[in-house]
## 1
Amino acid sequence: MREILEAIQAGASGEEISQLPIPQHYRAAFVRKEEVGIFEGLASQEKDPRLSLHVGEVATPELAPDEAYVAVMASAINFNTVWSAIFEPISTFAFLERLGRERKWGARHNLPYHVVGSDASGVVVRVGSAVRNFKPGDRVVVHCNYVDDQDPDGHDDSMMAANQRIWGFESNFGGLADLALVKANQLMPKPAHLSWEEAACNALTNSTSYRMLVSRNGAQMKQGDTVFIWGATGGLGGYAVQYVLNGGGIPVGVVSSAAKVKLLKDLGCEAVIDRSEARYRFWKDERTQDESEWRRLGKDIRSLVGQDPDIVFEHPGRQTMGASVFIARRGGTIVTCAATTGYMIEYDNRHLWMKLKTIKSSHFANYKEAWEANRLVCRGVIQPTLSMVFPLEKVGEAAYQVHHNLHEGKIGVLCLSPEEGLGIDDPQLRAKVGEDRITLFRRHQG
Ligand code: NAP
C-alpha cells in the first residue's frame, strides 16, 4: 500500500493510479471468530473492545464487477464497531455466514475474521468491469448501505431490500483498514474542503440523521417544528441538531455534562437539558417505570420552549423510550433508529393512541438520501462533528471511548493518511465556511 499512498500524495493521475499493483495483503482492524466467547459472563460495559479488536495483515479479496477498491486514507468509529467488538447483541459472524451463502461473491465474506468499519474517505484505485460512474483517482467517501440491485423490494427505497446490509458490520472488508472493498453504489464525492479524517466521519451518522428528520421516509420535519434530541452532541445527535437548525426548527438537546452543554450552545442549540444535573429516573427498578419522571421531563421542555416536541429523535432505547413516547405532542412523531441501552422497549400505549402519536422506525439511508446528506457536507452547510483522531493501531482504544461515552460527536481513525489535516483540496471553500465551524467539536474535545 506504500506505493499507492506515495502516488496519492504525489498527486498521481487516475491513469497512473490504475497501473499500480493491488497488494495481496493489507493492514486492517478485525475481530476473530475464535474469540467470540471471550467475554462470556461479563456485563456489556465490562466487555473491552481493546481486547477483541486486532490490527494485522489480511488477504485482499477478489474484486466483483460492480465493486471498487478504495485506498482508505481515514475512517471513523461507529457504535456498530463497538457491537461487533463486544459480540453483542449477536456475533457479526452470523451475518457473514448468511452473506456467505449468496453464491460466489457472497462467499468471499465468510471468513474466520471480520474486517470492521462502516465509514471511509480515500481514493478509488481500481473498479470492476460494470462500474460506470467512478474511476481510479477519484477522491471519495463511502456510505454503508450495501444492497443488492436485483431485489425488486429495493427499487422504491433500497433500505427495503430483503438483503440490505450495513457494510463493515453485516459484510466483511470494511473501512477500518488501508484498503476497502465496496460496491460502486456506495461511493460519493469527497467534500473537497475537508481533510481526510473530517471527510471520513460523516456518512454513516449524517445520512441516518438526514433520513430520520428530513427525508420523506422519516419524520418529515417542517419549519417551526420543535425537535427533542437525545444525545445531542453524540454521533447522530450532532448532525440532528444541525438539520433542525438548518430546517428552521427548534432543537431541544439533551446531553450529560457541562462541557457538552457548552458545545451544544456553541453549535447554536439554545434549549439544552443536562441530564446529569436533572437526574431523571425513568425506571424505579428494572421492571417499573416512573410516569412522574416523564412528566418532569415534559415540564422541563415546556419551560424551555413553551410546547411539547413535534418530533422526538430517539436512539437510547429502553432507558428513554417510555419518556420519549410520553413527551411527544398530540399527533407528534417519535422517530427511532436504535436501542443502545436495551432493545426490549416498554411504553404506555395509552399515551400513544389517545394522543394519536406515531412511532416511526428508521435505519441508515438509501443511496439518494446518503448522497443528499453528503451534498450538504460538500457545500459546507452541514459540518463534520469530528472530535478526536486515533491511528489505526489504536482502533481498540477509539472504540472503547465510544463504548464508554467518553467522546463527543465522531472519532476519526487515520488509516493510510500519515497525519491529520491532509487532503484539503478547496481551501477557499474552507475559509468561506469558516475554520471555527468546521473544527468546533475538535476544539471542544481539546
Ligand atoms: P454515540 O456517539 O455514542 O451517541 C449516543 C449518545 O446517546 C451519547 O452521546 C449519550 O449522550 C446518549 N446516551 C447514552 N446513554 C443514554 C441514556 N441512558 N439516556 C439518554 N441518553 C443516552 O452513538 P451514535 O453514533 O449517536 O449512535 C447511537 C445509537 O444509534 C447506537 O446504538 C448506534 O448503534 C445506533 N445507530 C443506528 C443507526 C441506524 O442506521 N439504525 C445509525 C447510526 C447509529 P449524553 O451522555 O451526552 O446524553
## 2
Amino acid sequence: MNKFATVIMAAAAATLLVTGCSKSDSSKIKVGFSQVGAESDWRKASTESIKGEAEKRASIELTFSDAQQKQENQIKAIRNFISKGVDVISFSPVVATGFEDVLKEAKEAEIPVVLFDRAVDVSEDGLYVSFIGSDFVEEGRRAGRWVVKNVGENANVAELVGTVGSAPAIDRKKGFEEIIANYPGIKIIKSQSGDFTRAKGKEVMESFLKSPEADQIQVLFAHNDDMALGAIQAIEEAGKKPGKDIIIISIDGVKTMFEQILAGNANCTVECNPLIGAQLFDVVEQIHAGKSVPSRIPSVEGVYDNVGGVNVGTDREPVVTKKITQEIVDSRKY
Ligand code: AHR
C-alpha cells in the first residue's frame, strides 16, 4: 500500500545532502556490499550483476564482501564498512533476524543502508532506506497456483526448504501454504531444508526417497532451482523419472533449470530476478544526491513452464506462464 512511500526523513535527508556535498565533488560514492555467498547459480548471477554494474559506473567505488552463508561474517563486514566510513551500505541478508544492532550502528554513523534481494525483520522503522528485491511470498503463491492448475486438487508434496531463517525460505513456504490451504487434498508430506545448494538438495531428496513415504511423493516443490537440480539427480538415481513420476516446480529461473524443463525432467520455475545491480546503484546515486527514494522497489518477474498460458497470478493481476523453448534457453544470461 505504501509501496512508493518515501522514507528519508528531514533530518536524515539533510545529513545526506551534507555528506553528498562534502564528498561528491572530489571522490566516488563508496559503497560497501555484503553478499550472502555463492550458494546457487542465482547468487552467482546476482554477484555478477552487482560487480558488473559497479564497474560500468565511474561514480561508484565498490567494496564487495562474501559472507559465505554465515550471518556472523556479514555482521563483521557491515561493521567494517561502518568503520571505514563508506557512503552507503547494502547487503543481502543471510537470515531475516539478528541485524537490528548493526543496523542501529549504521544509523548512528549516519550511513544509509539499502537492503538488496532479501528483507530483514526489525522492530524499529528507519533502520534502512530502501529494500530492492522480489516478493517471495508471491513467488510461493505462484508455485502453489501452478500445482493446483496442473496437478489438480489432490497431491502429496515434498518440499525442499531454503536456508532456515532466511526471508525467501520463510516467505516462499508461507505463500505456497496459503494457496494449498484452500485444497485439503494437497498435502506437504515431507519438508526439510536443503540450504539453497545443489549438494544438499540432492542429499535431502535422497533421504525423502528412502523414507516410508517415498512412493507417495507426487510433487516436489523446491524453494530454488539449485536444490531442484540436485533432487533431479537423486530421483534419477532412485530409478524414477523426474518431471513425470514426480512433478517438479521450483523458483529462480536459471538457465540450467530451463534446460531441464525443455528436456522434460522438470515442469515449472517461478522467476526470481537476480539482475538488479543497476537498480541498486541508481538508488545509491539518488541517495547520495540527497534525493528521496521509494522504501520498496519490487523486481519484475515471470513464470516459465512446459505448458504455457497458465495464469499463476490472480484474476485482477494475471501472470501467465511462458512455455520454455530452445530460443528462451539460448537467450538466458544466467
Ligand atoms: O534470495 C534469493 C534466493 O537466494 C534464491 O532463490 C536462491 O537461489 C538464493 O540462494
